[in-house]
Specification:
- The complex is a heterodimer of chains A (about 475) and B (about 325).
- Chain A has about 475 residues and is mostly helical.
- Chain A folds into 2 domains: about 300 residues; about 100 residues, no CATH class.
- Helix content of chain A is about 70%, strand content about 0%.
- The radius of gyration of chain A is 26 Å and the shape is elongated.
- Chain A starts with 20 loop residues before the first helix and ends in a 9-residue tail after the last helix.
- Chain B has one domain: Formate dehydrogenase/DMSO reductase fold (Up-down Bundle).
- The model of chain B has no long low-confidence stretch (mean pLDDT about 95).
- Chains A and B meet through helix 2, helix 3 and helix 4 of A and helix 2, helix 3, helix 4, helix 6 and helix 11 of B.
Chain lengths: ~475, ~325
């Protein structure tokens, strides 16, 4: 069958070696989110300092002209390009997911693009002509820059939060029900607070590089630190966010999955440290923060951002769009048909590697289709290591009842032959790929797997919302 | 009017073509302008055109990338499966366009700021942009060559070494020179316009000759419902305009060349798309009725007004 004709789109799958795909997209995503949020907070901070500068605080004006160059050189272009990189990376990792997002939200994405274009134009205009502009025009341009960058966040936030909590969209409520989904507002407030904090911390670093006496730098730092104050509200925002999460996702964050719980802890701990330092040290005790300490806090903020993004991605499991698309790029409604036809019946792409038997080749195709998005064979989240101590029957049972084996796994979207092929492939891989490998699977075994598949059903372990 | 009708796909196509044309203007300035500045730097000449170009290149690249997000969005609606498949087949090598653009951007800043490192910086930038242009050309051709997909995947091939790549790149090079010359000429002195006229005419000749050879050898001329003729007539009119500039640099030749090049850009965009039109995927699921078009339309108007205000504001303080 042509790759263009299959009802379920099968795409060529790339192997990233020992890197699991989540790490690839996570790496690009965290970098992008950090830069983009810094650009937003930085814009707001500049508008505030420009206003102060025009009210007679000369140092604030000097700060704006120095800080802005850094903002432009770092965040505009790298931020914009990593945004494009996010698109390309998402295609590599889950083409069907990004396709669904584009299909549903293209007009809102186009809206976001318009705001982004305004942001870039206002930013460059200020960068290039700012020193020559009248005060009023400077302030207006910065307000436009900050406003447009926040609007860009507003629109993209709705699309991203929809992936985790699609809300009324699942009931056919359309784009707006999906956009203003349950996690839209907590996520927007959360990201806005992170943005202003990042802007303030970078601002503190830049202030330390200014050629000013210490007391004048301290005065600027105290003003900049106000923009980091919203991070003190993180515990409340985090509770709000937790409250709107689906119950199963919440349970993983609160101990159900130790990896995710640890990342929640890292994000919360890092935010607490930054918030504590800002509120107690900078705002209450009016301490001075030097460049090294500000850089350390910024590194902590990067850690918190990274952990937060990991949590956001992980909490969606077993979906990439909750209730609509599994992390395997298969829709819930397609699982039943794949249980009959097999997972790879429509896959038009050959294997790049040769295998000693047809069954092992089938296993490799099934792994490529169903497992590759989150697992590698021997690298990160390695199938060989995760299953090394399982007996063959245990492996068969656990794969057949995958969504019950672990709640954040999707139901197995293949038939009994597919399960057995994966079992034999894993045996072969665990045995260091022996050339004389003898597969052992009987009709009784296949019948037992089929019974387990039937018992597991085709529904996910958790509710769709 | 062909290729548009009343369908939602036509609206996507119209927006794709419009945003692509805008993107092409900026990237042409960047690619051809960086090449021009590199040649000037290698010759060691104090060329005022090159000085202005160096000054504007980082902004134009930023604008080109921003404008490029538009067509990147709409191409995913029109040719989703083909676009994603080509992305995946070219794999990490395709993804390398992003670091190449980042390196190119900072190289342009370096070329602007440091005279000592200018040649190296511009050389690096031109190499990066050439890589991006080549990658895009390959991606597009892979998208269209569905019979080759399985073999490419099986072989793990990251390059699409087909003969069609070269003439396509050469046509783009000619078009970019011509588009660059139009933009650069508006801020140029009369003597400089003559030089740009030579560049533009050279670009048009490259485009015309390559296309003629391709059509003659391949016998695959597609009138594209008359758009190909509009393109040819516009290109000839642009050449006449540039010839006029050569004789009278401060005359109306530049207006003629600009209008004709704009018409050629529009027609060229449609002609470029013509071979792919039959491959447009019908709207999937709810995508054809996706909400938000009104919000986009209003935002687009607001955005245009805001950008116009920005341009007017900075023009008042030259």
């Amino acid at each position: 069958m042509s790759p263009l004709e299959s009802p379920i789109p099968y795409y060529p799958v790339n192997d990233f070696g020992p890197l699991m795909k989540g790490l690839v997209i996570g790496g690009v995503g965290i970098f992008h989110v950090f830069l983009a949020q810094f650009a937003i907070g930085g814009g707001m901070l500049m508008w505030y300092f420009e206003r102060r500068g025009q009210r007679g605080h000369h140092d604030a004006r000097t700060f704006v002209d120095g800080y802005f160059r850094i903002l432009v050189l770092v965040s505009f272009v790298v931020g914009a390009l990593t945004g494009v990189a996010m698109w390309f990376t998402t295609i590599q990792v889950g083409a069907r997911t990004i396709g669904l997002m584009i299909d549903e939200f293209h007009w809102l994405w186009a809206t976001e693009w318009v705001w982004f274009a305004v942001e870039i134009t206002a930013g460059y205009a200020f960068y290039r002509y700012g020193p020559r502009l009248a005060d009023r025009a400077r302030l207006q341009l910065l307000a436009l820059y900050a406003g447009a960058s926040w609007m860009s966040l507003f629109w993209i936030n709705g699309i991203l939060s929809w992936q985790l909590t699609p809300g009324g969209w699942l009931d056919g409520g359309g784009v707006w029900a999906g956009f203003f989904n349950p996690s839209f507002w907590p996520s927007l407030v959360f990201r806005t607070a992170v943005s202003t904090t990042l802007g303030a911390l970078v601002g503190c670093i830049v202030i330390n590089t200014m050629d000013l006496p210490r007391d004048r730098k301290a005065a600027l730092i105290r003003r900049a630190a106000r923009f980091a104050a919203p991070i003190a509200g993180m515990p409340v925002i985090a509770l709000w966010f937790m409250a709107v999460l689906p119950a199963d996702s919440r349970s993983w964050l609160l101990g159900g999955s130790m990896a995710m719980t640890m990342f929640v802890g890292i994000a919360a701990g890092a935010s607490l440290l930054i918030g504590g330092y800002v509120i107690v040290g900078l705002l209450v005790q009016r301490l001075y923060i030097n460049g090294a300490t500000a850089t350390l806090l910024l590194a902590l903020a990067f850690g918190a951002t990274a952990a937060g993004e990991f949590v956001r991605e992980g909490a969606r499991k077993p979906y990439t769009v909750r209730g609509a698309l599994y992390s395997t790029s298969i829709r819930p409604g397609e699982v039943a048909a794949l249980r009959v036809s097999g997972a790879t019946a429509g896959d038009p792409y050959p294997l790049r590697e040769s295998y000693p038997s047809e069954q092992l080749a089938r296993g490799a195709r099934v792994v490529r289709t169903l497992c590759d998005a989150c697992h590698t064979m021997r690298g990160a989240n390695a199938l060989v290591e995760l299953t090394r101590t399982w007996s063959d029957d245990q492996l068969r049972l656990n794969l057949a009842k995958l969504q019950h084996t672990k709640g954040f796994m999707p139901p197995f979207a293949g038939n009994a032959e597919d399960v057995e092929a994966v079992v034999q492939l894993l045996r072969w891989e665990r045995g260091e790929r022996l050339t004389g490998f003898a597969a052992s699977s009987s009709s009784d075994t296949l019948a037992q797997i089929a019974r387990w598949l039937d018992e597991a059903g085709t529904e996910p372990a958790g509710a769709a919302r | 009017m062909w290729p548009f009708d009343a369908s939602i796909e036509s609206l996507w196509l119209g927006l794709y073509l419009a945003t692509f044309a805008l993107h092409a203007v900026f990237v042409s300035y960047v690619a051809a302008g960086a090449g021009y500045a590199l040649v000037a730097a290698l010759r060691g000449s104090a060329d005022p055109i090159a000085a202005r170009v160096r000054d504007w290149l980082p902004f134009m690249l930023g604008a080109g990338i921003t404008a490029g997000v538009g067509p990147l969005l709409f191409v995913q609606l029109l040719y989703q499966r083909r676009f994603y498949t080509a992305n995946l087949l070219l794999g990490p090598r395709w993804g390398a366009v992003v670091p190449a653009l980042i390196i190119g951007f900072y190289a342009l800043y370096l070329a602007k700021a440091s005279e000592r490192r200018r040649r190296l910086a511009l050389g690096v930038a031109v190499a990066c942009f050439a890589f991006v242009a080549w990658s895009w050309t390959e991606l597009r051709l892979v998208m269209m060559d569905e019979p080759a997909w399985r073999a490419m995947y099986a072989a793990g091939a990251r390059f699409y070494a087909e003969p069609a790549v070269v003439p396509r790149l050469v046509v783009w090079l000619g078009a970019m020179l011509s588009l660059f010359a139009v933009i650069a000429a508006w801020g140029a002195a009369p003597a400089e316009r003559r030089r740009l006229a030579g560049l533009a005419l050279g670009g048009l000749i490259v485009c015309g000759a390559t296309t003629a050879i391709k059509v003659t050898l391949g016998r695959d001329f597609d009138p594209a419902h008359g758009w190909s003729y509009i393109l040819a007539v516009s290109a000839i009119a642009a050449a006449v305009g540039w010839g006029w500039i050569g004789r009278r640099p401060d005359g109306p030749g530049l207006a003629v060349a600009t209008a004709a090049t704009t018409a050629a850009l529009v027609a060229g965009t449609v002609v470029r798309e013509a071979p792919r039109l039959a491959m447009i995927e019908r709207a999937r699921g709810a995508s054809g009725n996706a909400g938000g078009i009104l919000v986009f339309a209003v935002t687009l108007v607001l955005g245009v007004v805001a950008i116009r205000w920005i341009v007017r504001t900075v023009r008042e303080h030259p």
